[in-house]
Amino acid sequence: MLYNYLLLFLLVSLLVYIHLYRSEIKKIQQQMVDIKKRESNRLLTQGLYTKELNGLVGTINETLMKERELRLELEKKEALQQELLTNVSHDIRTPLTSLDGYIQLLITADNLEDEERYLSIIQNRLEKISQMLDQMFLYMKLEDAHYPVNLEPLDLKQLSLSRLFNFYDIFQSKGQEPQINMPNEPVWVEASEDLMDQVLPNVIKNALLHGQGDLILTIKEEGSLHISNSFTGSYQGDPNILFERFSTGSASRSEESTGLGLSIARSAVEKMGGHIEAKTEGQVFTVSIYFNQP
């Protein structure tokens, strides 16, 4: 008799457990439908806890979180693309307008000297437009989380001097001579040759475009690089705002600047695991870059 009661109890318990298990599966399914329908940030909850259900809910929640991360990344890319397209239109309008004017002058020119002068100006405008587009698409690539980066031990002294030398003619035309302070021994840092081509030239261009006076380049043994020069007037606010995209030292962008140079430099430095910052002391503006050392 006791055996029959025990058997009946086990059977009823099993039926109740099966019912609860099926109800929990239905609740999980309904939560999934609601999350999909509303594109909610909710995660699954459960009322019945077993090894199998815990594993199922945990795996689904991990998948939901990864899907949301991908969705946010996609939304960020779409917003960036829209902003870039808007600013492409803004930035190339002026050079395109002037380009049209010079083409009309070229057509009506009645001597070879004027034709050559107008052709030279047209070529210059086209090069500027090409540079603007290159910078904008480069920035989009650097903002991609999957952008490939190959770091290797490189001598910061050699990297800096070779890129500084590319501006020799510009320094000469401005009557400037860069001041260079660095240790005698190599300063090894973890860096990428390709990314360094986006860091130093953009920082130096910014200094030449918005600053004045001799540029000072300082390299320290702990793997840091500092580029300074003076500026006129006064700078209000945090100078690090200049690293934000489409920001320039003046109130608006011009044909000479897309406002992406320092932003590209920051993205490139961060891709290498480094840090870049700006500060002002009196009338001196300094960009400092800190690298990891091998």
Written overview of the protein:
The protein is 58% helix and 14% strand. It is built from seven helices and seven strands, in the order H-H-H-E-H-H-E-E-H-E-E-H-E-E. A five-stranded mixed sheet has the order 2-4-5-7-6. Strands 1-3 form a two-stranded antiparallel sheet. Strand 4 and strand 5 form a beta hairpin. The chain is an alpha+beta fold and 294 residues long. The longest helix is centred in the N-terminal third of the chain and has 58 residues. The chain folds into three domains: 70 residues; 56 residues, Helix Hairpins (Orthogonal Bundle), CATH 1.10.287; 139 residues, Histidine kinase-like ATPase, C-terminal domain (Heat Shock Protein 90, 2-Layer Sandwich), CATH 3.30.565. The relative contact order is 0.09.
